[in-house]
Amino acid sequence: MPRMQADEILRRQLSVFVEQHGGAAQAADALQLSRIFVWRFLKTGKAIPRNVTKLKHALEGVAGSQTAGSTVETAGKREKKQVDQFRFSRSDVAKMRLMLHYLIAALDAYEAGDTDVAGRPGRAGSPY
Predict the structure, then answer these.
(1) Can you say whether residue 7 is alpha, beta or left, with left for phi > 0 and alpha for psi between -120 and 50 degrees?
(2) Kindly report the CA angle at 4 between 39 and 62, in degrees rounded to 5?
(3) For the chain, is the Cβ count within 10 Å smaller at the N or the C terminus?
(4) Segment 38-77, tens digit of pLDDT
(5) Distance (Å, whole) CA 31 – CA 50
(6) Which long-range contacts (CB under 8 A, 24 or more apart) does 60-69 make?
(7) Backbone CA torsion sign across 54, 9, 80, 25
(8) CA angle 59, 42, 83 (to 5 degrees)
(9) CA distance 55 to 62
(10) Strand, helix or coil for residue 113
(11) For residue 73, how far is the Cα from the chain centroid?
C-alpha cells in the first residue's frame, strides 16, 4: 500500500469539532462516520483518499457554510446557555436530597430484610 500523507489542517478542524461535541464518539455520531475512523484520524491525521473526502464533506455538511474551525467562537456561547438551563433552586435541591435520603433508607432496610420498600415487614430469605 502507498504511504498516506498526514493532513494536519483537516486533523485540526476535526479536533476542534470533537472538542465542541464533547468527545470523538459524539463527533462521529454527528458526522455520521465511524467512531474508530474519527479516533484514528485524530491520532494520526492519515486516511485513504476516499475517507479523507468523506470527512471533508461531513465537516462541511454539518458546519453549513462555515468551516468547523470558524465555529469555535460560538461554541462557548452555546455551552454557557446549556449550563444555565440545569440550575436548581435551593428548595428543589432540598426536596431531592430528602427524597434520596428516604430512598437510601428504604434500600438499606430492604437489604437488611427488616421491611420491604413500602415499609411492610419483609419476608425472610426472599429475594423479593
Answers:
(1) beta
(2) 45
(3) N
(4) 999 999 989 998 988 999 988 988 866 444 445 444 555 5
(5) 15
(6) 62/17, 62/30, 62/31, 67/13, 68/13, 68/14, 68/16, 68/17, 68/20, 69/12, 69/13, 69/16
(7) positive
(8) 70
(9) 11
(10) coil
(11) 20
Cell numbers at 64, concatenated: 453549513
Answer yes or no: is pLDDT of 19 > 60: yes
> Which residue bears the cell 420491604?
116
In one-letter notation, the amino acid at residue 73 is E
Nearest to 10 by CA among 2, 29, 73, 37: 37
Q: What is the pTM of this model?
A: 0.47
Among 33, 3, 1, 2, which Cα is nearest to 18's?
33
How far is it, in rounded angstroms, from Cα 118 to Cα 106?
8
Cell of 90: 435551593
Cell numbers for 76: 462557548
